Amino acid sequence: MMKEITLIIADDHPLFRQGVVDVLALERDFRVIAQASNGMEAINLIRSVKPMVAVLDVNMPEMNGQQVTHQVTSEHLPTRVILLTGYDDVEQAIHAMLAGAAGYCAKEIEPDALARTVRAVADGKYAIAGNIFTRRELDAWIDEQMEGARKSYSEPGSPFHPLSDREMEVLSCVVRGMSNKEIASMLGISHQTVKNHVTSILRKFSVEDRTQAVVYALKRGWVKLQDTGIKPQEH
After folding, report:
1. Each residue of 166-183: pLDDT tens digit?
2. Cβ count near 151 (within 10 Å)
């Protein structure tokens, strides 16, 4: 008997979501047990029905896929997360895996490749853009990506970063995929103060969003993976 893999699918576009459900429902060993149209619904479903695998859109209202993934990791929920994205690039993939995702795929993925990804993730492995990794191979891949980037961005002398101590604290929380509300609670500062710090970090780095800020700091060695204590989820 094949091991049955239970899934939930979350995407705010009903037509795309139903397409993913229909494709995965064709696989004899898959059973889609629930659907969600936003991140809040997704995390509540993951808590209540505990699927083996959750396939989540990265960009959803209320909570995005990264935030849901972070919550799953923080609560040590057994569900493994695959993030689907319309913007497939290495930097986003690294950030997804740091948040605790087990898979990261472009929405253009072929149906059979998505099925292979789901099976690999359910089996405790990690999947990025068609590559299947063990935990150790994933760690090596992330280190290799960041080391290569760091060399091309290296600056002479001792590492310098333009952030204040408080901004570095906020940045380390952002690396973990935490929301502004969570950061405010952890650091004991107001939500608006967190927003001000994040805006200042983006301005100092000359980047447009939080993911770019994280990768910018990682590339230059201002934040290191081992310093943040972040590794993909252990299973």
Report:
1. 888 898 888 877 889 999
2. 9
- Nearest 10 degrees: CA dihedral of 58, 64, 65, 71? 170
Q: Does the predicted model carry a pTM greater than 0.90? A: no
Place of tokens 């959750």: 54
Q: What is the pLDDT of residues 28-70, one digit of tens each?
A: 999 999 999 999 999 999 999 999 999 999 888 888 888 899 8
Residue 136 burial by Cβ neighbours in a 10 Å radius (0-12, 13-18, 19+): exposed
Domains of the chain: 5-135 (3.40.50.2300), 144-228 (3.40.50.2300)
- C-alpha pair distances (Å), 171 with each of 63, 103, 202: 19, 24, 10
Residue located via tokens 């993730």: 121
Q: Pinpoint the alpha helices (H) of the chain.
A: 14-25, 39-49, 65-74, 90-99, 111-122, 135-153, 165-175, 180-187, 191-205, 210-219, 225-228
